[in-house]
Amino acid sequence: xxxxxxxxxxxxxxxxxxWTEEARRIDWHRPFDRxxxxxxxxxxxxxxxxxxxxxxxxxxxHLATRGEQPALVYISxxxxxxxSYTYRELHTEVNRFAAIIAAQGVGRGDRVLLYMPMIPEAAxxxxxxxxxxAVHSVVFGGFASASCATRIDDARPKLLITADAGxxxxxxxxxxxxxxxxxxxxxxxxxxxxxxxxxxxxxxKPVPGRDLDYAELARQHATAQVPVTWLESSEPSYxxxxxxxTGKPKGxxxxxxxxxxxxxSSMEHxxxxxxxxxxxxxxxxxxxxxxxxxxxxxxxxxMTTILYEGLPTRPDAGIWxxxxxxxxxxxxxxxPTAIRVLKKQDPAYMxxxxxxxxxxxxxxxxxxxxPTHRWIHDALKVPVIDHYWQTETGWPILSLAPGIEPxxxxxGSPGFPVYGYDLxxxxxxxxxxxxxxxxxxxxxxxPLPPGCxxxxxxxxxxxxxxYFSDFPGKLLYSTFDWGVRDQEGYTFILGRTDDVINVAGxxxxxxxxxxxxxxxxxxxxxxxxxxxxxxxxxxxxxxAVVKDASKIDxxxxxxxxxxxxxxxxxxxxxxxxxxxxxLFVTLLPKTRSGKLLRRSLQALAxxxxxxxxxxxxxxxxxxxxxxxxxx
Length: 631
Ligand code: PRX
Hints:
The protein contains 20 helices and 32 strands. Residues 242, 288-289, 364-368, 386-391, 414, 479, 481, 493, 496, 502, 507 line the site of adenosine-5'-monophosphate-propyl ester.
């Protein structure tokens, strides 16, 4: 048996010993009594009775040995700023931030919603919440006010932290008005809004009595020291909302101790990042990758982390490689879409920089196509590791683990089950195991390993119903992804089993888009499907039936209606969910029992065979779809 196979086997068959060893990678204020409490399946409690804190592990414990080492380097090609914070400086910033938050009455277990651009204060705020035992919920800055309001009502934060504006490609996105609108829409708005005023929005107007100015409070609390609040391992660290089959996003709840251990462990065995080295993750703090591998993971490991605000192509397509070279990054983490964007640029941009520091490039979030994998692999000449995971898991499910055993990259596959995961590939709802080369649903036999979601925020029942009900009679976590395994054990991901699509690595529920479009007054019915896109992986495409056909009877009015519908999506969800096109039909393909034939619709949109249509109610719907697509 290979070293990795043995490592993986031990993680499943000898959980206690395995995770006791891994748990040594972090500081415990009080040691845990038990590795795992699994007395209430599928709810797992890791490191029971242990007390720890994410902020302490990310900052305080490094002060003695690496206080003067850069902890966080903020690089903005939007404002042309580069600012480095040592661990000691980060400690000061986070203490100050924690004091400001605490002064608003926020403490252990209270929620704080963050709606922030990629600025250092976003990381300070997250770490400050962790320090206080407050539960942060970061909402991606690209989401619209209505999405933000839904999350406010679910998390019911005491405080909301935002900035006047973000920047994208030189264009300002005013955050504060979006927050004002979200608070207007919310049933349970926070009492206070803390605003980091970057001076970008010249019309910035604070709401008297509600909005707090960060700079002013930072002066008041300049030298504040805030003691760490020690949390029991299972106490929540954060909530992060993600899309699913229904229109209502789920609050993925993460614990504290299990997450810290999983991250520390993955930094070693998977990412191979050493203390003192630099990690560059190109995601956003609003996504799970940003939580785990911009903020917490690299800092827990004592690395320098890079927080980059800007596009991969501005000022030119060499910017990321310049950052790698300037900061001698050893680990880089990005997304397939970003690499596809760079692939379209002149390769000379890459050749300009000395990238010899880089040991691995990790890619995740969406399928990595072979041409892109080959291209970046040949260009970098280091292993490019495709790895697969989910917001729910917080760290990789499938990957190579070069820290345990150098492994051969196989194009198209994210590798093997990560240690801790008892992964199954199931042929059907009866839970029968798929054989090699046979397509199945990727499932995890619980307990889910440390670091994974512990429940849906405020809704234990939804956690069980959503994730553990795909295989009746068997308690198994469904990833909602299809997969197939080859004879060597490499697993390949074949797409989602549900209505979730992946646009440029961003996970979006087609139902959410449909619900948003329904908000337009002239929409009778709508279907949204994900259509393959050479750059972004997938793009949403909408088929709409209107109530009043006179509003689409000329080319100009149709274009106008399409524009309006897109604007509705922008305002309900955000531009990231905007369909590439809205095509008008008078009939959608449905079964006789009224179920939308989504797969057929998607197949037609991608120019494939629509498959079995024996259940279709009215075949004329297909002709309409074909006609609309041709137009
Ligand atoms: O469908 C899988 C796809 O993205 C989903 C999870 O997205 P999200 O919650 O945003 O988490 C991303 C964390 C990296 C998965 O269910 N996915 C993620 N990674 C891959 C992938 N599909 C194919 N290959 C991958 N490497």
